[in-house]
Write a structure and sequence with these properties.
mainly alpha, de novo design (two linked rop proteins), 4 helices
């Protein structure tokens, strides 16, 4: 059994979740059940699915959850674009969040390739 806390990608994604919660706390109240909720769910889905996958017996099962986490990372990347375009996020912050989510995506993708090999 794998320990998810030993993976750099899990730690990075957990830190990103915390930052997304800080970010979305400044969004308009009208977005509470819209973009705020969607961004938070997409963010915490990354480390949550990764963690669940670590508890699976086979590399194939683990990889399935890595793929779900990767999909959530792509979804979150779009939400950062949307937040910027709605002026909830400035350009500099957007670039920082975009860079962080893309680092996570690359790590998940590389791990997925290793699990398939």
């Amino acid at each position: 059994m794998r320990n998810f806390k030993n993976y750099d990608v899990w730690m990075l994604s957990h830190e990103l979740v915390l930052e997304v919660y800080k970010l979305t706390s400044s969004f308009p109240a009208s977005e509470k059940f819209q973009l705020t909720s969607q961004m938070q769910r997409a963010a915490y889905s990354i480390p949550a699915n990764f963690s669940e996958g670590c508890g699976r017996d086979s590399d194939k099962d683990f990889n399935r959850f890595v793929q779900i986490a990767l999909g959530s990372a792509h979804e979150l990347e779009y939400f950062f674009i949307l937040a910027k375009d709605l002026s909830f996020l400035d350009q500099e912050s957007h670039e920082s969040f975009d860079e962080r989510v893309n680092i996570i995506k690359k790590k998940l993708y590389k791990l997925s390739l290793r699990l398939k090999a």
